[in-house]
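Example S7 (C-alpha cells).
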C-alpha cells in the first residue's frame, strides 16, 4: 500500500504539473490518475538473522547475516538457495561483499578482530561452488572497492579487474577457474599494483568502475574516494597483461589536479553509481559526498579528460524531508540507486527519491522498527530492478514512466530537443514544446527557424501568418506555408489550393522585386528561382496547378514572368498550350523541343503538319528518333501536305526509314513513297520496284495505282516493270521496244516458260521491230532459234530483198529439218525391233515351266509349300498366298488395300454360289470367279516380294515402327 508520503507527493505533483502547464500556455487536460513514479512492494522473505551486508546482480542475491552465515538465492527462481557458514573459513569480521554484474563472482572482505593476531583478508566465492577460496597475496591489504569487467560473461574467469584498498592503492588482477580447481596454486593469474591514489595516506578507495569503449581499445576508469573522483582515459592492448596498467601509465607523472574532481568532505565514504542505456557504456553518473550529489553526463567519444567531464557536472543539494526537524544533525545517505532521471537515497530509516533535473523530492518513505534499520538500496545493473533490504525485510521498487513530466523541465530550461524527445508520445505536450520554441526563436528574430517550428505545431494559422506579415518577413512566411503544405492530407484540396496560390504569389513577388532592381542575373535571383522550380515540381503542387491552371497562368501573367509561365506549363504538363505559344511566336524549333520533351504522342500528330512546313529536317529527325512509338499512318496528313524540294526529300527520308528500318507494310505508306519517287526520283523508283520482287501477292504497294501514276509521270521503264507484274507481257514488250531493245528482250525472257506460243509471239514482236525500225537483217537473223524459224520472220522483210540475204539461214534450216527426219526414222526402227523382241519373250514365257519339290518351303513362314495355295516367281522365290498377302498388305497404298478387300469379299461370295453361276462366262471367255481371282493375283503377285520394285521403294523403311518402339524396347530389357 502506498504510504501517506506517497499520496501527498502525488497530489503535490499533480498540482505542480497543472501550474507548470498553465505557465507554458498549455490547455488544462484532465488525465486519468497515474501511479506514482516509485512504488514498493514487500517480498515474502524473512532472513533467519539480522542482515548486515547485501549485494544483488543479474537477479542473484547474496547477503550476510549477523550469525556469520552467508545466504545466496536466485531471485528469478527463489527455490534455488543455499547457506554457507563463514566461521569455518575465518574468524575475522566481514566488512563488505562485492558481486560482479553477472552474479557469478563474489569477493568477501574481512577485518581482523585483533590487529596483533590477524591481518585483513580477501576471499573469493564462485556461484558454481560452495567453497570459499583465499590467497596469501591478498593479505595485508584491506580492500574497499572492486572494479568489475562489465564486458565479461564467463562464469569461470573474472577477466581483468581492479581492486582498491583503504590506503588508496589500486591493484589489477584476474581470477580464473577450471572446474572447481584453480589453474595455479593461488587465486589470481597475475597481481600488479597499477596506481597509488593515497600517496602514503589512509585515503580509502570507495568505488572503482571501468568501461571499454565499444569497437576500440580505449578504456574509461573511474575511482572515487571520500573527497575526490578520479578519471582515467587511455588505450590498452588486451594481449598485454596487466591490461589496465597501460591506461594508468600515462598518469603517473601528471599533476593530480588534472585527473580528479574534488569535493571537501568529512565523511569517511562516498557513493558512485552509473546509469547506462545500453548496459555497455555509461550515459550519466551520480557521486554522493558530504556536500551533495554531483550529477554529470558522459560521452565516451569526447570525454577523454577530467576537464570535459567537469564541464557537464552539476552539484545537487540533498533533498529536505517533508517535515524537517532542524534540531537533528544532517544525515547522509548510506546507499544510492540511480535511474535515468531520478536517484533513490537510502538512509538508515528512510528512502527518498529526487528528480535529478528539477531537484525536487518525488518520493519519501520511512521504515519502522519492525523492519529494522535499512541496510542498502541496490539497483541491478543488468535488469534495472531496484531492491531495498532492511535488517529483517526485503522490498522491491517499480519505476512507472519516470519520464512523464521530464519534458516540462527541459522546456522551462529551453532544452527543446530533449523536451521534444520526452514529450513525443503526448501530442498536446509535444505541441506546446514546439510553440514555446517557435515563440522564443521569433523573439530572438530567428524567423526562418521560428517558421519551421510553427509549421510543425498545431496552432492558429491566421495568427502565425499575421505575426510574420507584421514584421515584414515574407521569406519566413513562405517557409511556414510550404511546411504547412507538406503536412496537409491530399484530400484537403481547398487548403492545398490556397497555400499553393499564396506561395506562388510570394515567389513571383520576390522574383519581380529582384528583376526591378536589375539583378536578374545575380546569384540571389538564381537561388530564389531554383527554390521556386523545386516548389512547383512537388507532386502535390503540380497536381494543384493542373487543377487550377487558369488561375496560376493569370497570376504569372500579372507579374510579367513569361519564363516561369513556360516552365510552369512544363511542370503541369500542359504541353499543348506551350507548343501553341511557341508556334504563335514563330519559335518553331522551341516548339519542336517541347514536343520532344513530353510523352503525349497525340501532340505529334496534332502539330506535325505545321512543323513539317517550317522545320522539315529537324522534325523528321525527331520522328525517326521516336521510331515505333509513332504510327506512320497517322502522320500521313503531315507528309502529303508538303511541297518543295526540301520537303519531299525529308518526307522520302522518313518513309524510307519506316519501310527499311521499321519494316512497315502499310500500302498507304508504300504508295506515298512510290508517288514521291515517280515525281522526283526515277532511279530510286526502279530500285524500289526491283526490291519488292516479282510476286504480286508479296508486294506492299498497289500495282494498279502505281501503274497509273507512272503512266501519268511518263515513267515508261517502271510501267514496263508493272506490266510484267500484271502478266501483260505483250503490253510490256510493246512499251519496252519504245524505251530500250534490251529491256524488251528481258521482258520476253521473263514471260512464262510453259507458254511457248506467247514467247514466240513476243520474240516475233522484237524481230519485227528490229527489221522494220532498224532494217538490220543480220540482227534479225540472231533471233532465229527453236521457237522462231526463218519462215516466221520472212514476212517482215521487204519484197525487194534478194535470196542471197537468207541463203545461209535457209540452208541451215533445211539441214536441221533433214537431221530431225533421220533421227525420227532411227527411233521408229528401234521401237519396231524392241516390240518384236518383247513379243518373242512373251511367247517363250508361255511355254516356260519349273519343278517344285515336296520339300520346298515358304520363304515367309518356312512351312511346306504345297500344304496351302502358293505363288512361285521366276526368281525361284516361293510364298504361301496368305503369307504373301500378310507381308505385302502393309506396303500397299490405301486404294489398292480397299480394292483388295472388295475383291476378297466378292470371291468369298462367288464361292458360296451355285456352280451354274460360276460357269457363266463373259466376253473374255472367263468365269466371274476367275476374273476376280485374276485381279487379286494381279495385285498380290504382280512382282516378287523380295525382288520387285516394292522392296526397292521400302529400302529405307525402319524395321521397327514408331508406335512399336517403346513396347519392343521394354521386351528387350
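Recovered sequence:
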Amino acid at each position: 500500500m502506498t504510504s501517506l508520503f506517497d499520496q501527498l507527493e502525488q497530489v503535490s505533483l499533480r498540482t505542480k504539473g497543472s501550474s507548470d502547464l498553465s505557465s507554458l500556455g498549455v490547455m488544462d487536460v484532465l488525465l486519468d490518475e497515474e501511479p506514482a513514479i516509485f512504488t514498493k512492494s514487500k517480498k515474502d522473505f524473512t532472513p533467519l538473522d539480522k542482515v548486515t551486508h547485501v549485494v544483488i546482480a543479474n537477479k542473484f542475491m547474496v547477503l550476510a547475516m549477523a550469525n556469520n552465515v552467508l545466504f545466496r538465492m536466485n531471485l528469478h527462481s527463489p527455490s534455488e538457495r543455499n547457506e554457507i557458514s563463514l566461521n569455518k573459513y575465518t574468524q575475522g569480521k566481514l566488512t563488505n561483499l562485492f558481486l560482479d554484474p553477472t552474479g557469478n563472482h563474489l569477493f568477501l572482505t574481512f577485518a581482523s578482530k585483533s590487529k596483533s593476531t590477524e591481518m585483513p583478508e580477501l576471499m573469493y566465492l564462485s556461484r558454481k561452488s560452495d567453497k570459499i577460496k583465499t590467497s596469501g597475496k591478498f593479505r595485508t591489504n584491506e580492500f574497499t572497492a572492486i572494479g568489475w569487467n562489465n564486458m565479461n560473461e564467463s562464469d569461470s574467469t573474472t577477466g581483468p579487474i581492479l581492486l582498491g584498498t583503504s590506503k588508496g592503492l589500486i591493484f589489477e588482477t584476474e581470477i580464473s577457474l577450471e572446474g572447481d580447481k584453480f589453474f595455479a596454486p593461488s587465486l589470481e593469474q597475475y597481481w600488479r599494483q597499477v596506481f597509488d591514489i593515497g600517496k602514503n595516506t589512509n585515503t580509502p578507495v570507495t568505488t572503482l568502475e571501468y568501461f571499454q569503449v565499444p569497437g576500440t581499445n580505449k578504456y574509461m576508469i573511474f575511482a572515487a574516494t571520500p573527497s575526490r573522483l578520479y578519471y582515467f582515459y587511455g588505450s590498452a592492448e588486451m594481449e598485454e597483461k596487466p591490461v589496465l596498467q597501460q591506461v594508468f601509465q600515462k598518469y603517473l607523472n601528471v599533476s593530480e589536479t588534472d585527473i580528479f574532481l574534488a569535493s571537501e568532505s568529512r565523511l569517511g565514504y562516498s557513493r558512485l553509481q552509473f546509469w547506462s542505456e545500453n548496459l555497455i557504456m555509461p550515459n550519466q553518473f551520480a557521486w554522493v559526498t558530504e556536500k551533495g550529489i554531483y550529477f554529470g553526463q558522459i560521452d565516451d567519444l569526447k570525454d577523454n579528460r577530467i576537464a570535459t567531464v567537469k564541464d557537464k557536472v552539476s552539484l545537487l543539494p540533498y533533498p529536505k524531508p517533508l517535515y524537517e526537524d532542524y534540531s537533528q544533525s544532517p544525515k547522509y545517505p548510506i546507499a544510492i540507486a540511480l535511474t535515468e532521471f531520478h536517484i533513490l537515497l537510502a538512509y538508515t530509516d528512510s528512502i527518498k527519491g529526487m528528480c535529478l533535473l528539477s531537484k525536487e523530492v518525488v518520493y519519501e518513505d520511512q521504515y519502522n522498527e519492525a523492519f529494522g534499520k535499512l541496510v542498502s538500496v541496490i539497483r541491478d545493473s543488468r535488469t534495472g530492478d531496484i531492491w531495498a533490504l532492511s535488517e529483517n525485510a526485503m522490498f522491491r521498487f517499480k519505476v512507472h514512466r519516470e519520464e512523464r513530466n521530464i519534458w516540462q523541465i527541459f522546456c522551462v530550461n529551453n532544452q527543446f530537443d530533449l523536451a521534444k524527445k520526452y514529450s513525443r508520445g503526448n501530442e498536446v505536450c509535444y505541441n506546446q514544446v514546439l510553440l514555446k520554441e517557435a515563440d522564443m526563436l521569433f523573439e530572438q528574430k530567428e524567423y526562418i527557424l521560428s517558421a519551421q517550428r510553427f509549421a510543425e505545431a498545431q496552432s492558429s494559422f491566421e495568427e502565425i501568418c499575421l505575426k510574420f506579415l507584421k514584421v515584414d518577413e515574407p521569406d519566413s512566411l513562405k517557409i511556414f506555408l510550404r511546411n504547412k503544405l507538406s503536412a496537409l492530407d491530399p484530400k484537403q484540396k481547398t487548403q492545398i489550393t490556397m497555400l499553393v496560390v499564396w506561395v506562388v504569389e510570394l515567389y513571383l513577388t520576390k522574383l519581380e522585386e529582384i528583376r526591378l532592381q536589375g539583378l536578374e542575373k545575380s546569384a540571389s535571383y538564381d537561388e530564389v528561382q531554383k527554390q521556386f522550380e523545386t516548389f512547383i515540381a512537388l507532386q502535390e503542387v503540380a497536381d494543384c496547378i493542373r487543377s487550377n491552371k487558369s488561375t496560376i497562368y493569370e497570376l504569372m501573367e500579372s507579374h510579367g514572368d513569361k519564363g516561369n509561365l513556360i516552365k510552369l506549363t512544363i511542370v503541369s504538363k500542359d504541353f499543348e498550350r506551350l507548343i501553341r505559344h511557341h508556334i504563335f511566336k514563330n519559335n518553331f524549333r522551341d516548339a519542336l523541343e517541347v514536343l520532344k520533351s513530353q510523352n503525349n504522342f497525340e501532340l505529334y500528330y496534332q502539330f506535325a503538319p505545321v512543323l513539317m512546313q517550317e522545320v522539315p529536317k529537324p522534325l523528321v529527325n525527331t520522328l525517326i528518333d521516336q521510331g515505333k512509338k509513332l504510327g506512320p499512318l497517322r502522320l500521313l496528313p503531315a507528309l502529303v501536305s508538303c511541297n518543295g524540294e526540301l520537303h519531299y526529300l525529308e518526307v522520302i527520308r522518313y518513309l524510307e526509314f519506316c519501310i527499311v528500318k521499321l519494316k512497315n507494310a502499310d500500302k498507304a505508306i508504300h504508295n506515298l513513297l512510290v508517288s514521291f519517287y515517280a515525281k522526283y526520283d526515277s532511279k530510286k523508283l526502279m530500285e524500289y520496284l526491283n526490291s519488292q520482287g516479282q510476286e504480286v501477292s508479296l508486294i506492299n504497294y498497289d500495282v494498279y495505282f502505281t501503274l497509273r501514276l507512272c503512266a501519268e509521270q511518263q515513267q515508261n521503264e517502271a510501267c514496263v516493270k508493272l506490266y510484267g507484274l500484271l502478266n501483260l507481257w505483250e503490253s510490256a514488250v510493246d512499251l519496252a521496244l519504245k524505251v530500250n531493245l534490251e529491256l524488251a528482250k528481258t521482258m520476253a525472257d521473263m514471260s512464262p516458260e510453259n507458254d511457248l506460243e506467247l514467247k514466240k509471239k513476243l520474240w516475233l514482236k522484237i524481230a519485227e521491230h528490229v527489221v522494220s525500225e532498224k532494217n538490220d537483217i543480220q540482227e534479225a537473223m540472231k533471233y532465229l532459234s527453236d521457237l522462231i524459224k526463218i519462215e516466221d520472220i520472212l514476212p517482215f522483210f521487204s519484197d525487194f530483198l534478194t535470196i542471197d540475204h537468207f541463203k545461209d539461214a535457209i540452208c541451215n534450216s533445211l539441214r536441221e529439218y533433214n537431221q530431225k527426219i533421220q533421227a525420227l526414222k532411227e527411233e521408229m526402227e528401234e521401237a519396231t525391233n524392241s516390240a518384236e523382241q518383247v513379243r518373242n519373250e512373251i511367247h517363250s514365257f508361255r511355254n516356260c515351266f519349273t519343278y517344285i519339290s515336296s520339300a520346298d518351303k515358304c520363304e515367309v513362314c518356312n512351312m511346306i509349300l504345297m500344304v496351302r495355295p502358293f505363288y512361285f516367281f521366276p526368281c525361284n522365290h516361293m510364298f504361301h498366298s496368305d503369307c504373301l498377302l500378310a507381308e505385302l498388305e502393309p506396303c500397299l497404298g490405301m486404294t489398292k488395300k480397299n480394292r483388295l478387300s472388295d475383291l476378297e469379299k466378292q470371291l468369298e461370295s462367288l464361292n458360296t454360289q451355285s456352280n451354274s453361276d460360276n460357269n457363266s462366262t463373259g466376253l473374255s471367255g472367263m468365269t466371274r470367279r476367275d476374273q476376280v481371282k485374276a485381279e487379286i493375283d494381279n495385285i498380290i503377285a504382280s512382282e516378287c516380294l523380295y525382288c520387285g520394285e516394292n522392296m526397292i521403294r521400302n529400302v529405307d523403311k525402319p524395321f521397327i515402327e514408331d508406335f512399336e518402339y517403346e513396347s519392343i524396347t521394354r521386351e528387350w530389357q
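Notes on this example. Residues 865-910+925-972 form one domain.
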